[in-house]
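## retry 2 of 3
previous attempt timed out at serialization; input unchanged, resubmitting
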Amino acid sequence: TPSLTVLMAVRNGSEYLRTAVESILQQSYGDFQFLIVDDESTDKTRQILRSTVDPRIRLICLEKNVGQTAALNVGLRQAVAPWIARMDADDVSHPSRLKEQMSALRENPSVGCVGTAIWEFCEDPAVREKVIVRPPDHESIRRAVLHGSGMIHGSIVVRREALLACGAYDERYRYASDREMFIRLLRRVRGMNLQEPLLGVRRHASQDSFSWT
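## retry succeeded, writing output
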């Protein structure tokens, strides 16, 4: 059993998918399963994933479009590792992202969810358009969650049992379920944010920052 499951839900993500997947497979931390839930894609997403040969990849193909929130719950319930790392199909993880986060969790055993700062980019992940940092400590994060965003969802590593115990993702919210989830989660576990940008978030014209239909 790996120590970590990297969880991605994707629908029609073929344009940027290879780059996102490769950024996970090239991580310096290797003890993970890469669980990808395809939400009834109609483009080349499944072909791309099936052609990527790596024993750490596990692909779940849904035959009905359920939306990102429900697709994440499918993956969460299928995961076997004690920790879940989120990853989106158009983003890029820094090669040391998972190593830094798992090290932080070992050094801070009371913490149940660790996020990171991010950088935004358009075409080239190496060109940082903007860096976004979230509060470092639990109390500051909780206050920020109530007024906006205390943690960046795509950057987190979270204890799987805690996420399930708080009710996982509420499927009544087909879009933007992460903020409501954080309110429930952070009542159960302590959070922290690494101040180094370890996730690149792509900004593009076709982007839907909440979910898909």
